[in-house]
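so my prof wants the structure for this chain in the tokens format not the other one, which i didnt know existed until like an hour ago. anyway here's the sequence
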Amino acid sequence: MLPRKFYVTLDALVYISLASIEKPVGAKELAEYLSLPPRYLEVILQGLVKEKVLRSVRGPRGGYFLGKERRKICISDIYTVVMNADEANVANEPELPEYIGIFGAELDGRIHVLLQQHTLDDLVVACRKHRPSGLKSEGNFVI
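here's what i got, hopefully its the right format
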């Protein structure tokens, strides 16, 4: 299984893509939707902005929009952002043996190939199919 942070990021991006049609999605709103502390999302959201997956708007009515069309956002790009955000935490860990590094690099390559076959649009379509009344239990949010 891939890191939970990756799946949370995918959920956040589906929410942003559906909820930001009229106005940007604020970090606080997103954190509440995901039941997470805002600080948890900060590093990932900043990475997604840096990679132009998201666009941020500053100010009291600011928040996040998609940086490009859903069909142009590859899931492998999202995976890369999440994994790079975790690299800062790995810096203090002991170095892995070479054979583990080789295995990890091969595994990572295979994961990228699989994830390149899907886009954010695929997830939005799946969301609409499996949750036609909206995301999670939001009573006022309808897709």
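also thought this was worth mentioning. The longest strand covers residues 54-57.
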